[in-house]
Amino acid sequence: MFRLYIPLVFFVVFVGWFLYRLLIKKDLKKNLNTLFLGLFFVGIWTVIYLFILK
Q1: Among candidates 45, 47, 22, which has minimal Cα distance to 35?
Q2: Which three-class secondary structure state does DSSP give residue 1?
Q3: Nearest of 46, 36, 50 to residue 11 by alpha carbon
Q4: What's the domain range around 28?
Q5: Which of the two residues, 19 and 10, has the higher pLDDT score?
Q6: Is residue 8 part of a domain?
Q7: Which position has the higher pLDDT, 53 or 39?
Q8: What is the DSSP letter of 39?
Q9: CA within 20 to 30 Å of 26's CA: 17, 32, 45, 50, which one?
Q10: CA–CA distance, 54 with 43 (Å, rounded to integer)
Q11: Contact 41, 9 (CB under 8 A)
């Protein structure tokens, strides 16, 4: 059952990274590739969750 919560932890870490880069470091434009990769990862996990919870 814990496996269902791991992607949520990754999502929280990703949002934390995003806010850190956006508000504190102010270099999000330099890290757009990482941002898009993270959004792709979140999208894939969303699709997986939809299939699991259906």
Answers
A1: 22
A2: coil
A3: 46
A4: 16-53
A5: 19
A6: no
A7: 39
A8: H
A9: 45
A10: 17
A11: no
CA angle (43, 38, 24) in 5-degree steps: 135
Q: What angle do CA 46, 2, 9 make, to 5 degrees?
A: 55
Is 39 among the domain residues?
Answer: yes
Encode pLDDT of 11-46 as tens digits.
899 999 999 999 999 999 999 999 999 999 999 988
Q: Global pTM?
A: 0.79
Q: Residue 27 is encoded by which pair of tokens?
A: 């270099």
46 falls within a domain: yes
CB-hemisphere CA count at 13 Å for 6? 7
Closest to 15 measured CA to CA, from 45, 47, 42 = 42
Domain contains 6: no
